[in-house]
Amino acid sequence: MCRGARIRKLWHQGMLKNIPLSALIGLFFTGLYFLMAIFAPLVAPYGMAEVVGDVWEPSSADHLLGTDTIGRDLLSRMIYGGRTTIYIATMATALSFITGSILGFAAAVSGGWVDQALSRFVDLIMSIPSLIFALVVLSVMPVTVTVLILVMGLLDATRVYRLARAVAVDISVMEYVEAARLRGEKLTWIIFREILPNALSPLVAEMGLRFIFMVLFVSTLSFLGIGVQPPGADWGGIVKENKEGIVYGIGAALYPAVAIATLAISVNLVADWVLNRTTSLKGGRG
Amino acid sequence: MHPVLSLIAQRLVLGVLLLFAASVLIFAGTTILPGDVAQQILGQAATPESLANLRAELGLNDPPVTRYFGWLGGVLQGDLGTALTNQRDIAESLGQRLSNTLFLAFWAALISVPLAILLGLTAVRYKDRWPDKLISAVTLASISIPEFLIGYVLMFFVAVQLGWAPSVAMINDSMNFGQKLNAIALPVAVLTLVVLAHMMRMTRAAILNVMQSAYIETAELKGLSTFAVIRKHAFPNAIAPIVNVVMINLAYLVVGVVVIEVVFVYPGMGQYLVDHVSKRDVPVVQACGLIFAAVYIGLNMIADIVSILANPRLRHPK
Hints:
By secondary structure, chain A is mainly alpha-helical. Helix content of chain A is 72%, strand content 0%.
């Protein structure tokens, strides 16, 4: 089936017709940012680290957003920076969901001391603010993209763990799970074949919110100088590089900050819609 | 013993235990992880001899458990150790900065808490009409905006373009009270904005929850005005959840302070912590991390205790 026909079919099934305007706007900007991130080398007019003009040139036809603190094209830098931000946030979200939900399901299914040990450990980690904990850990670790993803993903896995456990506790008392247990299925079967398919929709709705949190988290770390290290750049890092300009009335630092905010708001709009849809369908996957 | 007292005692013990566990976690986080502190301080070019010397100087050759109890013993007596970067006593450098941070957080809390509760009540009063809708739209936007964006936008327009407030919040002892307040005007405004929306929304939810009870319906059927119902019947019962909301947000404020201090170059704890994380000054990071964790755990504990005290069913058991 060609694409057009498929979209028309979805439309008639009421899948696209009922998308509210806010979610459409959210979907459009989220898609735009992700496409720009994926095709950054094709979209960006100049290279990321290429010095092409004077310091803090105002915006012009050559440089749509002007130039940055050492004369690099700000638009190109923003596009590459978005790529880094989105990449780190996506990987960290994936890591936190995989670890958090598997551990949460395992705790709910096994119960007993496994559940107690995991849950109390998660309580402990959550008793320290994640930004402070990340700063403490990053003070002794070499700050690379991999380490950032690991630290952010594992810290955030605690939040996913709580949700996954709460959802799975309700599911694990269902008859079909008991039937699987009586059949003698292993823990991995119960988690992946019985619990996971039924717990998917609340988890997917939560994923949007966790992604936003990751974008804000990595941007904050980079802004504080403890995230992505130069010459690499992400949006938070670009804010840091250009912050001195603010005092002289140069708004270069505001562009990446606005980009972070618009990405976060768009994802939030989409997540809100998914959440409303899944709760109104009572867990349906329609 | 009165059941409330034993519940409170339980919470206090739990809080102390949690703080103790958090100190273990902070210490372990900087010790057991694969990174080598000595290597990080001296860089890749360090000779094996200088590395060995530094390790001996830092006591890194002792087993971790010994070092942990040495550190904890010091902390309990108010000795936070010395900074690696400038050999100064950490407790001494921290004192002034901690009071600066508390000064900032205090004013932000003083403005944001009453404002949030008032706006939350307004949202309930005009539920599903435009004031309520406006409040929920602002909330959605504000949880998506990084703190430093609000900071720089205010700095750019209010301080630089309009010149109403200083763009950098430097304070020192020679300033009088008014000058200090003027200096922290912008950071306080940003912190207020950051926590306001959250607090407002959670207050709204807490009051709405109470408003659905049967006694509220009775009060309405008696013919009381909406504000009288909220003030006399809903609010007393919503105190516990609201105090909880306020405490959670104050705890959040303490963390938000870190970023805001860096934005406005404010000489507080957050700036001190961030500076020393980049310099890899582990004793300072441990000390700051522990203090932040203590404040956070303390506020959450107070929230728990207040909600126990505010619950009439627990105060007057059958």
